[in-house]
């Protein structure tokens, strides 16, 4: 695969999702530089063929297109406007593609900074998991200038199976938060259904199979089915991450006057697991919530 030969790219944030995506870019032939706040993450990428950079600003000096995938609003704003940030060296003709899940407000601030530097800015949050990232099967929600989207289409095609163009500004941010609201609620309702079946004597794995092959089946449930059966909560996306995304959505919903009682309930489920020290487990751990209520009354 050499779809990106001669492309000069820089990647900021070599974490759980960033690492497999960086490997895809290297395999596609790109000349890739990487930066991360944790220097220990850079050595494995250097061994894979990437060029480490000390700061985002230094990374931008040798790249035409920069990509970032960071945990939250504060991290994104630090990458762009903090010391050694992209605002110091971005220039006309460059593009910043941010794949993080962040608030529309923080993203709009980044747009202002990029416009002042004469650079294009694409908001491209993704839907998927670490395994779909490694397979290049993410869904990418994209918004920004059409010309920049056209220019970066071959790059996005290496990272995702489908790119959905959402608009010219922060529309992709809203779409990602909307999707994550449904994602966050999924284990809670599945847990209720599984507990119901369990009280009627149904086998746990058989119930997961029935749900996975019924009209309620989804790519998310298909991906999580074996985890549910094994009750293995090794995180792909942990409770803390989902809680952060719900906080973003709820804040936006409050500002816009959107009724969100179910999302607020999902946030409370997450808070309960965080309070018990389980925020680092996969968010599908929330599917076990009825067991805590039923523990004194086993059957």
UniProtKB/TrEMBL annotation:
GO terms for molecular function: NAD binding; NADP binding; oxidoreductase activity. Residues 8-164 form the 6-phosphogluconate dehydrogenase NADP-binding domain. Keywords: NAD, Oxidoreductase. Residues 172-286 form the 3-hydroxyisobutyrate dehydrogenase-like NAD-binding domain. Gene3D superfamilies: N-(1-d-carboxylethyl)-l-norvaline Dehydrogenase, domain 2 (1.10.1040.10), NAD(P)-binding Rossmann-like Domain (3.40.50.720). Pfam families: NAD_binding_11, NAD_binding_2. InterPro entries: 6-PGluconate_DH-like_C_sf, 6PGD_dom2, 6PGDH_NADP-bd, HIBADH-like_NADP-bd, HIBADH-related, NAD(P)-bd_dom_sf. The active site is at 176. The keyword Oxidoreductase applies. This is NAD(P)-dependent oxidoreductase. It comes from Muricoccus nepalensis. The lineage of its organism: Bacteria, Pseudomonadati, Pseudomonadota, Alphaproteobacteria, Acetobacterales.
